[in-house]
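Subject: Protein record for review, amino acid sequence with backbone structure tokens
Why sent: The fold of this protein is of interest and is recorded here as tokens.
Notation: Tokens come from a learned vocabulary of local backbone shapes, not from coordinates.
Attached in line: The record itself begins immediately under this heading.
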Amino acid sequence: MKLKEYLSKMKGGAKSPPAVGLKELIWSWIGSVIGIGLCGYISSRYFEPMDLTLIIGSFGASAVLVYGAIKSPLAQPRNLIGGHIISGIIGVACYQLFGDVIWIAAAAGVSIAIVAMLATKTLHPPGGATALIAIIGGDKIHDLGFLYAFLPAGLGALILLIVALVVNNLSSNRQYPEYWF
């Protein structure tokens, strides 16, 4: 491939998606504030007193998908739950194997998580962050070991899913999920 051909691919070609209407904005906001708020409340009330957490940074990106891009294949329940749990397991394993050299653990964890999610049809981009958090998350996260994949990653994702099921189906213009498996 010639350089000019290669560079011409970067100019794009598709039209920008249409703007989102006010109702869609409001429903996305309601879902997100309830989902993230519930994870944060339960975490601070019940989990943090036990030196645990129920909220991780990758849930912010999951909220964008399950409340704002509900038709995306990346936002469906299988992807949300499976992506976080699989990536959490891989992140912990990579930290345990390569944690003495964080950059190797990080590169391996995120890369293997992507491949595993693709192979299991659970691709959920925030899962890459879930794997990375298992590696760079500090002592409290590291002390959880493989529990991290299920608490906070799996349980938090489940809470986001339950809220998405309730809120996204309150509007007559929205339906979630598109599919389960």
Remarks:
- The mean pLDDT is 97.
